[in-house]
Amino acid sequence: MKIDPKNKADLSAQIAKAIRDAIISGDMNVDERLPSESELADQFEVSRSTVREALKRLAAQNLIRTQRGATGGAFVRRLSYDEAYAQHITTSTLLLSMNAVDFETACEARFALERACAPLSSARRTPDHLATMRAEIHRQAQPGLSDERFCDSDVAFHRALVDGAGNPVLSYQLAGAVEAMQPLMNMITFTQRNRDVIIGLHTRIADALEMQNSADADTALAELTAYTLTLGEEAMEARARR
Amino acid sequence: MKIDPKNKADLSAQIAKAIRDAIISGDMNVDERLPSESELADQFEVSRSTVREALKRLAAQNLIRTQRGATGGAFVRRLSYDEAYAQHITTSTLLLSMNAVDFETACEARFALERACAPLSSARRTPDHLATMRAEIHRQAQPGLSDERFCDSDVAFHRALVDGAGNPVLSYQLAGAVEAMQPLMNMITFTQRNRDVIIGLHTRIADALEMQNSADADTALAELTAYTLTLGEEAMEARARR
DNA sequence: GCTGTCTAAAATGTCAGACAATTAAACGCG
DNA sequence: CGCGTTTAATTGTCTGACATTTTAGACAGC
User: Is A71 left (phi over 0), alpha (psi -120 to 50) or beta?
Assistant: First the structure.
């Protein structure tokens, strides 16, 4: 392993890239140990500090883990669903907030994707998923629930819907769309009337999934999309007036 | 800013987390400058090396950029779509390969999501999107095209379909599902007969989008899903026999 | 006053060397 | 054989130095 001496970029970035490429291309397998920091420093002909900075970059991307001690070192890490989930949600949320994505676009994306899950979820949802949905609906109906908690519960309900499809890849990809909407949803003030409508639609969705009636689920989701969009518009208008 | 001295984790990880939280929570705005490395070292009461390792972690997540020179330093970075795309694709691909996700699951997720885009794409696709699809279909029909190139073109076709929906959030979320399938698709040997069927379905999809007939697009996509699944199964069987 | 040049300062990037902390294996001893 | 102890390997942290890059400001000349 050598690096391009002509390249102007940071050495630590170049080294990180070289190792990253080796991992991604499959040259290195999960749990395989990288050479020690000193060995890498020798190989790349840089100091140990530079190697360390490169390794920290990889650690930040969950590509490696490090262990101290005699048999320690840096090991190629198996990317876990949970970590990827968390990272995906963080990135999606940042992407939306930093680029000022409008409510409409995010909302449309979210519900389009959710509707894609509905048929699968109606076929495969387990009693567990249904129970979670019912529990969240119940929670949403509780008096005195803050807007923020209402949103939390809303996300939990929809996550159960998505997970009901029993496809982890689907759940992963949708996590970004559903959770990243939350900051935008939190701008909305939910009146009791708003909540009643949403709870009604949630109930229809849960009923449809329980009956494995995917057409009804789709209809209710479509209505929920439209309703959420109007709520969002109102919130944006109210925000603009202030 | 202080860090928990009781915590056993790496100092650089703790410091990275502290700064990351400040950025994500919105305490720091885009292009705002962080204190210099020496100042951070003083604030957190650690050495400059440790601060640097923390900053490299953040740089790896595209949260900051650094500039050298008198007015240089670390600045909060606006996360760009392109970078987020690239990262999302890398992560999704790794997630699938490292966790041995089966072809069926990935395929189901991909096409379920694509079908969610079809109605929007049929309403909004521009002549550009249609032209890209036609061009890729043409490319797929070229004789002597390697399997890998065929897959590349397939991905480009589907990306145009998704982008046709004109919703960047949708494009972003789907990029992971579509592109991450590529390594799995590359395991398949596409006979001329296979290719003809796929090209036929692609043509039907492009025609349907051009006519803004979303029902036809959905039907063709459903058929393509089923066909891809059978191809995948055959490939897995052939792989198992060897 | 304007302009171009030079210099100093500030900041990141890199290096070398040291020591601390941790861990597992090797070793010795009863 | 079993059980502490030592030892070696490795990462984590610190210190100080120097290189490189970039800008602001001083300064000279017109």
Answer: alpha
